[in-house]
Amino acid sequence: MDLEALAESVVKQAVRLGASDCDVIVTDAQAITAEIEKSSMKQASAVSDPGVGIRVFIKGCAGFSYCTGHESQAVKKAVSLAVSQSKSGTPDVDFKGLPEKAKPAKVAGLYEPKLAQLRHDDVVSMAIALSDRAGADRRITSVNAGVSVALGDIALANSNGFVGSQKLSAFEAFAESVARSNDDMFSGVDGGWSRRYDGRMLERVAETAKEHALLGLRKTTVKTGDYPVILDPMAAGFILATAIGGGANGESVQRKRSYLAGRLGKKVGSECFSVRDDPTIAWANGSFSFDGEGVPARKKNLVKKGMLESYLHDSYSAGKDSVKSTGNSSRGGSMWTYRRPPSISSTTLVVEPGDATPQEMLKDTKNGIYLRITYDYPNLATGEFSGLMMESYIIDKGELGPSIRQASMGIDLIEMFSAIDLVGKEAKDAYGVRTPSIRISKAKIAGSG
Fold first, then answer.
1. What stretch(es) of the chain map to CATH 3.30.2290.10?
2. Looking at domain 3-215, which CATH architecture does it have?
3. pTM listed for this prediction
4. Which is it for strands 438-446 and 399-404: parallel, antiparallel or unpaired?
5. Are 247 and 414 in contact (CB under 8 A)?
6. Which residues of 39-58 are buried (b: 16+ CB within 10 A; e: fewer)?
7. How confident is the model over 264-285, as pLDDT tens digits?
């Protein structure tokens, strides 16, 4: 089926029914996943998910509907429902219109044809091999692991004449190794994200999960106090995805729900802290040639040498601020979905690397904390972060020491960014952020020692 032609025809249907503005996404996606739980196969699945999502506007009031599949009668009903919602809503004077027609950017590395050749048993075999490698030590008692492959053909059209399509692929892997020694237990985790198959990524994920599970069996406590903290790329990525990706969200800023509201053009971090949003990186899971509203992909600075330079906008928030969209209308992550309307999101956040190796960062820190993983989110409204350090280690005389029992870190985000005094040069992708390790000169650690 010609997805672009279908998207255009649906736009015309909506306009005939009274829509003043409309955009339509048509997708044809497939995904294969295999999951291992406690070293045994938990489930394997293959899903095909074609569909159409319709968003219409009448006097600025939005209506949205979708249907699974591309069957004409189902599409007509979805169009009618979206238009009906829009007609029954309250006019919105802040809506200034959808993006004008523009040519999609040329972005390499969005689709890996080799992934389309993988069969169900290939993905299952990868998950088993990942689990086996992550558990290849007698002290590892169980492993959780998973591999996912997704492929999508996506077309987008709007009432301003834009029509475009792109093929996307995604390859993800995850492993958690659980180690035991007498009464002590510790788990190590790692993950990998890309738009292409990378066997080395599977090896790294397995080996890193196993290594950290074993490393954490040596445990200690830490006294409450102020310490320098090195954030591993896994921890830095998890925190920054929300703190910067969410904090710079134009809609949140306009609603005064972000700690970055009113700080545009002001200092929010140290001179060595720079972050850009970049959807043009080859093979990165957040890359695309056009965003969820048809705006061409382009990189933009969010924080440059500590100064906040931009917020992230879609067409609505941009119109409200009388600026141009930054191309950050998201349709749902690495593999776009027709099941919900677009929303503002970062693509791939890139932290500008420094020139220190991981070994040099440890050696220069002397006595401090190495935080590898936290699963607690910053509070975007207040700008405060209080997180349990799920995997962290003492830094003793410039070397990585035992893992820390029961400790948490608390710090204001602006204080955190302003206290960054050392940035590594070896970056890793984690949670939509490409970042090296980052050192904070001082943070409050609540310990149990």
1. 3-215
2. 2-Layer Sandwich (3.30)
3. 0.96
4. unpaired
5. no
6. beeeebeeeebbbbbbbbbb
7. 999 999 999 999 999 999 999 9
